[in-house]
Amino acid sequence: MISIKDLSPMPPEDLSKEECKKQLKKFKKKLFELQNVFYADRRFSLLIILQGTDTAGKDGTIRNVMTCMNPMGVRVHSFKKPTEEEKKHDFLWRVYPHIPPKGIIQVFNRSYYEDIIVPRIKGELDDKRIQHRINLINGLENHLMQNNTHILKFFLHISSEEQKSRIEERLTKPRKHWKYDKEDHKASKKWEDYANTYDSVFKETSSIPWLIVPSNKRWYRNYFVAKKMVEYLESLNLEYPKGASN
Fold first, then answer.
1. Domain extent listing, the chain
2. What is the DSSP string of 45-84?
3. Which architecture does CATH list for 17-235?
4. How confident is the model over 7-22, as pLDDT tens digits?
5. 167-192 b/e (C-beta count within 10 Å ≥ 16 → b)
6. Phi (first) and psi of residue 44, to 5 degrees
7. In the chain, is it the N or the C terminus that has fewer CB atoms within a 10 Å radius of its CB?
8. Residue 38 and residue 233 in contact, taking contact as beta carbons nearer than 8 Å
9. Is the pTM of this model over 0.90?
10. Is the pLDDT of residue 246 over 50?
């Protein structure tokens, strides 16, 4: 299996910034239309998972791609460090209330995958307990798919150098400084550890494939995610319900 360290985080050379931005506008218009019929159709729900290292652009992706849709049918939830209450329960307990009902698109900014990745890197759980969590996640995702909750899993791939640059932005740009956390620099020093851990996660949770998004350039990241969302929603052959007969 190819490692993400071997995958370029840069856009393809045959795609320009101008063309991607032009296409993104079209995709956003299409997403608005598709989400409207998705909400009316009510046969499916959609869970979008955004994973990536710190500064990979999860917030930016949501802001630049998801906000074109009707907020009545789109929900976003960010999974941060577990609270004291959440720690009293199994690791999936905090996820269940945010599984989307039919007609809803739910975005996870980080997800239950953090409960594999972080403990692995910090050595907080042994291999047996990590494998148990992996089995539960695979079971949950397969269960959701069987019940017409479709899942799109995106990994926003940035280089170690780009991550360091974005951390510096948080220190120097006033509008981004609020995002800075001293843990950011610690995480950037472990970029290779995160890459190796994600490689393992991709292999172990591949029944629903991961989409690796080259994300060093924000404009290509937004284009890529919007394109994949449009393609997936179109594949569902959505339709408006027939009106009630007189």
1. 17-235
2. EEEEEEEESTTSSHHHHHHHHGGGS-TTSEEEEE--SPPH
3. 3-Layer(aba) Sandwich (3.40)
4. 999 999 999 999 999 9
5. bbebeeeeeeeeebeeebeebbeebe
6. -130, 160
7. C
8. yes
9. yes
10. no
